[in-house]
User: Fold this.
Amino acid sequence: MRTFWWRVGIMSKLMPNKTLKLSVVLATRNEEENIGRCLASVKDIADEIIVVDEYSTDKTREIAEKYGAKVFTEPHHDIFHITKEKAL
Assistant:
């Protein structure tokens, strides 16, 4: 986290007239038990929250939408990093 704030400080000095925005992007599949805490921890600092969900069979999508996330659906991949790459 220290590196993140250091970069924010450098960028604000390089671009003093620009407003920096933070997008939080998550790739999920059946994260009902975790996603609420995760989104609660970033909702006050994120300008936007994007969730790319692999057709969860639980309430992951509903919980994400409750936090104002833009939720997109991606087919399930056997290798989860494919979904993470598409999310970014």
About this structure: The first strand starts at residue 23 and ends at 28. The chain has one domain: 19-87. The helical segments are 2-14, 32-42, 60-66, 81-87.
